[in-house]
Design a protein that fits this description.
The structure is a single chain. The protein folds into two domains: 166 residues, Growth Hormone, Chain: A, CATH 1.20.1250; 154 residues, MFS general substrate transporter like domains (Growth Hormone, Chain: A). Helices cover 74% and strands 0% of the residues. It contains 15 helices and no strands. Helix 3 runs antiparallel to helix 13 and helix 9 crosses helix 12. The longest helix has 27 residues.
Length: 350
């Protein structure tokens, strides 16, 4: 499909800018207050939950410029940061958070409708968010001027509008990704893929990172998450999604455990842990080939479902148990093995 490489790169930077402004806003104004946990939960709900429904709308209204619309909402909402604390700032935060959801769907639309049979373009788009999240968090924690995040998003919006022009002139069509095993019932495939996304989202809060004590180390942690997401898509296209997903899942666990106090070992494990993102998205798109944006929304809803329990300290402590992480890893690997088509083949219903 024409333009897919350019779109994946443009949307990498657009996604980066989006998360910078959103997380600087959140951390700067709400991250150190008694309401921090509640605000984080509200942000996650507003940014993740609507994406399924926005995806359905974007599929129905094919000419809807969902990405630019979301970018405009984010910029309008970000203006609330320049208002005194109160109703206007809170309203701005809600508009910004909802705009975040629209931008995500815009990136999914651009990369999925031009990707052909490749998952790497969408994986590269998604990976930009990890770099943006930590950049925004660090800017907010340092109490840096919000003008920085706003300027970054202005540049990001220009990139998103440019990406929209590229998309309008590109060859588009439904993705032809074949990762789901067609011998399995479609509902089972979707449910198990949703389960894997949710569990992996929950597990991310239990990764042992005693070594993470400085801003630079935090940046490296999130950067390797981003590298893993993008690399997972690239390796899936090159060597096979099933091999990549299973190998990265099983190899990541011992590295994460062994690297609890060893930064570089842990970072390799984090990258491998993140690689399954591409596989789960590819599976869901395969299972619902005529509804790729709704399939993308299922992944973000799964992340939300996995994230919510981690807001409870007791749950967060429990999932840090090595034995529990090992069981969840094996269960997810087994689920992926069952629902993924053999690499290089198109498994048909038997």
């Amino acid at each position: 499909m024409g333009g897919t490489k350019k779109l994946s790169i443009l949307w990498f930077f657009g996604h980066f800018a989006l998360e910078v402004v959103c997380f600087q806003f959140y951390v700067k104004y709400f991250g150190s207050t008694e309401t921090a946990a509640l605000m984080a939960l509200l942000y996650d709900i507003l940014a993740f939950f609507p994406q399924f429904f926005i995806g359905a709308l974007a599929e129905r209204l094919e000419r809807l410029p969902v990405g630019p619309l979301g970018a405009a909402m984010v910029l309008v909402g970000a203006l609330g940061a320049f208002c005194p604390a109160g109703v206007l700032r809170m309203t701005g935060f809600f508009v910004l958070s909802l705009g975040n959801a629209f931008v995500h769907v815009g990136g999914a639309k651009a990369t999925l409708f031009t990707c052909g049979d490749k998952i790497a373009p969408s994986a590269i788009f998604v990976s930009g968010g990890s770099f943006g999240v930590i950049t925004g968090k660090l800017l907010g924690a340092a109490d840096s001027s919000f003008a920085i995040g706003f300027a970054v998003m202005l540049a990001g919006s220009a990139i998103i509008f440019l990406a929209q022009r590229v998309l309008e002139n590109a060859d588009t069509g439904y993705p032809d990704i074949k990762m789901a095993d067609k011998r399995r019932d479609t509902a089972v495939v979707i449910l198990l893929a949703f389960f894997v996304v949710s569990v992996r989202g929950l597990m991310s809060y239990g990764i042992p990172t005693a070594w993470n004590r400085t801003a630079l180390q935090s940046f490296c942690l999130f950067a390797m998450m981003g590298v893993g997401k993008g690399l997972g898509g690239i390796l899936s296209d090159k060597f096979g999604a099933k091999k990549t997903a299973l190998a990265s899942s099983l190899i990541s666990l011992p590295l994460l455990v062994a690297g609890a106090d060893i930064m570089w070992v842990s970072l390799v494990g984090v990258a491998m842990f993140s690689m399954t993102m591409a596989a789960t998205l590819g599976i869901l798109v395969s299972a619902a080939p005529r509804h790729p944006l709704m399939a993308y929304g299922v992944t973000t809803t799964g992340l939300l479902v996995g994230t919510i329990p981690a807001f409870y300290p007791a749950v967060k402590r429990f999932i840090s148990n090595v034995g529990f992480l090992a069981v969840l890893t094996l269960v997810c690997a087994a689920a992926l093995y069952y629902i993924m088509a053999p690499d290089g083949k198109r498994a048909e219903k038997g």
